[in-house]
Specification:
Blueprint lengths: L7 E6 L4 H12 L6 E4 H5 L9 E5 L6 H8 L10 H22 L2 E2 L3 H7 L2 H10 L20 H8 L6 E6 L9 E5 L5 E9 L5 E10 L2 H11 L4 E5 L5 E2 L2 E10 L2 E10 L11 E2 L2 H10 L4 H13 L7 E8 L6 E7 L21 H9 L21
Parallel strand pairs: 1-2, 1-3, 3-4
Antiparallel strand pairs: 5-6, 5-9, 6-7, 7-8, 10-11, 11-12, 11-14, 12-13, 14-15
Helix pairs in contact: 1-11, 3-4, 4-5
Length: 387
């Protein structure tokens, strides 16, 4: 657990965003002053300033069209393209921000170099593999891996043993943006499941409805348009099933300890809740793990804690854990720097965060002596995209 820092918080975020509102509520319930909100727009325009003694939390820059325009260079926030530019500008801004915080004598809860790894799936998988953490096999992991130049490169990977079913992901994407689950069927047929909607002029847009493309030229056009932003390819691992639906887990780790977990289930390859995935039954998942002869504490939560341990300078991460068929083996799909948006979810038994939501658990990790658990009634719905 991190040592207690100053009782003054600042949060770099989007004013009025539900993420910021949840964090402010956690502070109030803990008997602490609300955080000073530093808008992402001020950070990107060089107007952000920090004070001595502040504990600074970096939150997502998402859901602000002007922030998105400055980071990605696109006018329509629903466009998929521009993540390469987003990554370059985001990591530069975070490093500049970190320098300002440290120069002012503040404390930063998110390490800028670790964020640069977390937001590059290729680098993240390389770091986890080096630490012995199981991840889906990939020919694109690591800084030295060859770049994916377009569909021809993806098709060549799909022809390799074990890759007839694969995920093609934007290296710097989030919330399943730009992800394609590609598979070869009998007779040379090919199919891609994705949230990407391709407009008649070739523009790519995020959609809340999954689409299935079966014409190879159309799939190729999508991949070719995304490739300049950087692509990552992973073997598609068959997942465990709960009530006939593919299942995985999002496990939140705060200060090195697994505090919250949710099962996500779907009839499609993508389990993200905003794409139609549903929350599954966590008790059933624990029982399935035990029935398979595995340990929920060691093989599930322990694996997520070891994963988070590769990012010791970042207070909170969300680990996407992929249970294999039969719940006997587990691999880490992704590690999310902003993976704590799970409204109404309280801490796991024995985690030390019982009765606390993910934001209150982070406050308690920095300031252990809070007054009472927060109300877990969700705030009014906003334009958010949960995990």
């Amino acid at each position: 657990m991190r040592p207690a820092a100053s009782r003054r918080f600042a949060v770099v975020g989007v004013p009025g965003n539900r993420r910021v509102a949840f964090f402010q509520r956690a502070l109030r319930t803990a008997g602490l002053p609300e955080a000073r909100v530093v808008p992402w727009l001020d950070v990107l325009r060089g107007r952000a300033a920090f004070s001595a003694g502040e504990t600074v939390r970096i939150d997502s820059p998402g859901e602000d069209p002007e922030v998105d325009r400055l980071l990605r260079g696109v006018e329509d926030p629903s466009r998929v393209e521009g993540t390469g530019r987003w990554y370059a500008r985001f990591t530069e801004a975070v490093r500049d921000l970190a320098g300002s915080v440290r120069a002012a004598g503040g404390t930063l809860l998110d390490d800028p170099d670790e964020l640069a790894v977390l937001f590059d799936k290729r680098l993240c998988h390389e770091r986890l593999t080096a630490a012995g953490v199981a991840v889906p096999p990939s020919p694109t992991s690591g800084a030295g891996a060859p770049a994916v130049r377009g569909w021809d490169d993806v098709r060549a990977v799909l022809a390799e043993p074990g890759y007839r079913r694969a995920f093609v992901k934007l290296a710097h994407g989030s919330s399943a943006s730009g992800v394609l689950a590609v598979e070869f069927a009998g007779g040379g047929r090919i199919r891609a499941t994705t949230s990407v909607e391709r407009a008649p002029d070739g523009g790519l847009f995020n959609s809340l409805r999954l689409r299935r493309y079966t014409a190879e030229p159309e799939i190729a056009a999508i991949v070719d348009a995304l490739a300049p932003d950087g692509l990552h390819i992973e073997r598609w691992l068959p997942k465990a099933v709960q009530h006939g639906r593919a299942a995985d887990l999002r496990v939140v780790v705060v200060a090195g300890r697994a505090t919250h977990a949710v099962v996500r289930t779907s009839r499609s390859p993508l389990t993200n809740l905003h794409l139609g995935g549903l929350r599954g039954d966590l008790a059933e998942a624990r029982a399935a793990v035990r029935a398979a002869g595995r340990s929920w504490r060691d093989d599930v939560l322990g694996l997520c804690e070891r994963t988070a341990g590769r990012f010791p300078g970042t207070l909170c991460v969300g680990v996407d854990l992929l249970p294999a068929t039969g719940w006997r083996r587990f691999a880490v799909g992704e590690v999310n720097a902003f993976g704590d948006l799970l409204p109404g979810l309280t801490g796991l038994p024995g985690s030390g965060s019982e009765g606390l939501d993910t934001y209150a658990a982070q406050v308690a990790a920095v300031h252990p002596h809070h007054e009472e658990p927060p109300c877990t009634k969700p705030l009014p719905a906003g334009p958010v995209r949960p995990a």
